[in-house]
Amino acid sequence: MGYIDSVGDKIRLWSIEQSSPGVYVTNLVVTATIPTELEDAEVSLRELAKLLWTLKCGLHLIVEKLNKLAKEHKAVEVSLCRENLNAEEAKITTITSLFEKRNILKIKGDYIPDCEELQVHSTV
User: Fold this and answer.
1) Could you write out the three-class secondary structure of 8-58?
2) So where are the chain's domains?
3) Which of 1, 7, 48, 91 could form a disulfide with 32 if both were Cys (CB 3.0 to 4.6 A apart)?
């Protein structure tokens, strides 16, 4: 994780990590000078581009890790739910299982308006 700090004409990208509970370590990753004069604008803009690219890559890694954590969280939730249900209730739900007995489907009319080829048929 990181943060940006600016002082004067400098922008700094810092990283911060927790090495142990209650202990945080910050490291200076990159510094860029904000261009104020035309003569050094090229060098300053290169530094700024490097800083922004480093920030972009870091944010991309954070998003990947968060997505992975979200998938793991969902898998744990599903497994906990299945543990709490009996075997019959824990089966995987599919579209066809949604239309099993005990379900009531109410549709007005014999077909979907303006789509005669999508007529509704029932085996009930």
Assistant:
1) CCEEEEEEEEEEECCEEEEEEEEEEECCCCCCCHHHHHHHHHHHHHHHHHH
2) 2-63
3) 48
